[in-house]
Amino acid sequence: MQRITIGRYGIVPDDIPRPADPTKQPAQDMYAGWVEGVRNDGSEWVLFIDKDGSPQVYWPTRAEDGGVEGDPVALPRYGNVDPPSAI
Question: Can you give the chain as a three-state secondary structure string?
Fold first, then answer.
């Protein structure tokens, strides 16, 4: 493991426009924070956290632009949930 970063999203002002497609909402509208890491081979992953500090969804692969790729893994603390298709 090369690096792990933990972050918290700030409050997003109401005048910031949002995408019309609800499955494409910015991460800060759906989660309170994140944990991201870089593996030894340089590949990256991200885990999004709710307002209580509990992990909610994990994407094992990040795109070069910081987006997510592939299928997310829902973390079932509160039962199985359908995570958004992409962020």
Answer: CCEEEEEECCCCCCCCCCCCCHHHCCHHHHCCEEEEEECCCCCEEEEEECCCCCEEEEECEECCCCCEECCCEECCECECCCCCCCC
Report the alpha-carbon distance of residue 53 to residue 10 in Å, rounded: 14
In this predicted structure, the answer to whether residue 81 has a pLDDT above a threshold of 70 is no
Nearest-5° angle of CA 83, CA 12, CA 19? 55
Question: Of 32, 30, 46, 34, which Cα lies nearest the Cα of 84?
Answer: 30
